[in-house]
Structure formats: structure tokens, C-alpha cells
Design a protein that fits this description.
The chain has eleven helices and five strands, in the order H-E-H-E-H-E-H-E-H-E-H-H-H-H-H-H. Helix 2 links the parallel strand 1 and strand 2. 39% of the residues are buried.
Length: 228
Amino acid sequence: MLNNVQKYSLAARLLGVNVMMTDTVVRIGIVDNDPLVANALAPMFSGERVPVRVMWSVDTAAKAQRLCLKESQRPDVVLTDLNMPVMGGMGLARWISVHVAGIGVVGMTAFHSPIDEFQMEHSGMSDVLYKDANLANMVQAIGKAAGIESVARWGTNGESVDTRAVDLTETEIRVLRLFLGGYTVRQVSEELNMGEGTVKTHANKAYKKLGVHNRSQAIVVCMQEGIL
């Protein structure tokens, strides 16, 4: 079953109309059980030139299932965390492929480990991104999942935001990456073998360099501009 933007693209080709669809907007739903990451993802797509609109953001696969079954809330693509309690991203992708045909699924993970491509394809998931992927890569993966060529190429011709030069230290980057992975200050402290006060010091230095005031804002900037 085709989603709305795919139907438009197909109709244009059948009519012999050469349409680049630069005004096409792909509607997405976000699923992540970490509220810090979930709250950081939605603002990434808020730029006026970004061809993605966030319809909803939820913290469990069950909530996403209910929304996908409602026609008025059904997105073109679901962007889901792979590692969630009860039902993970692969399970949600398999459920969508069976019960709600026409919705693309893109997975996300904070763990830089090899992806089981056979399992990914078997689940119906089109791609898996690391959560520190930049905005252009995320939009392109969403466009690919939606079957929209112009969105899948977004950012290759300069449409994306410019990357600001930020001189973060290696430790500041490691701290921010762990925050992006859902770690608390205490967990970062244990992972990096440093005091919680030292973690906060590195984090605050990074916030100042990024021009932000907290973890959520820092994650948004880093994800938008591919700093991590």
C-alpha cells in the first residue's frame, strides 16, 4: 500500500509530469523511551526548509501502534529507537508491516555496534541510524523510507543548515555522546571514571561553546549540525 506522498509521485510519473517535489513534506512519528532524546529529536525537523513534519512523539511502541491505526494520526514514516522495553524497534517494524502497510520505518540506536542487516530487512525496517547522525542523514533516511527521491537527496545540494565550528574537547564530546545515549550524570561519571562534579564541569563548558543552557538544547544542536 502506498502512502500519500508516494501516490502523488506515482500519479505525476503516470501523467508524464516532471515533478521534483521540493515542497513535499514527509510526516513522521517518533518513538523513543528516553524523553531527553525524544524531546531533542522533534526540534531538529522544525526548520522551515526541512521537508519533514513531526506528527507525534511517544515513549512506547504500544502508543505508536495505537496512533498508526488511526488514519488521522498515521504518519508516512516512523522513526523508532531499537532498544525499548516490552517491544523494541524491530518488533514495532514487523507489527507495522503486517497491520499498517504503507508506513516506512527507520530505526535509531545509540550503540555503535554492527547492525544485523538480515534482521533489519526481515522486520521491514529500511535503515538504522546512530542517534548522533546529522540532520541531513536523518532526512535522507526518512525520504528513502517514504519512497520520496527528492527528500532522500535532501542536503546534498546545500539545503541543510550550515555546520558551526565548535572547538569541543575529546572529553566534552564523550560526555555529550553518553548524554545522547540516555546516560545520567551519575552513569557518565561511572563510564568515564570521573567525579559527577567533573562531568558537570565538562558538560557546562560544552554548553557554553554551543551557546545553549542544558543537555536537551545541546543534543538538539549536536544532532542538527552533526557535531558529534
